[in-house]
Amino acid sequence: MEESVFFNRGNALASKKDPKDLYRTVQVEQSKQRGKENLVIVLDENNQEHLLFSFDDQLPKQTGEEFKIKERI
After folding, report:
1. pLDDT tens figures, 47-70
2. Is the dihedral of CA 49, 3, 27, 9 positive or negative?
3. Which domain of life is it from (predicted)?
4. Cβ pair 67, 55 in contact under 8 A
């Protein structure tokens, strides 16, 4: 079972249709943050878009948009 999380789409660090492109962005973000930030890749099931968020930006269920976690980094 996939875990659901809630985020504001405007807080996404990046969004890509192709997950391989998103992994390149992950490498850049990790080098900027020096590995201090917990990142998460989620899937928007409506348009099959992959988004990158800082896990710290997670919102309560009532205020955020629901996404399925694909990978924690």
Report:
1. 999 999 999 999 998 889 999 999
2. positive
3. Bacteria
4. no
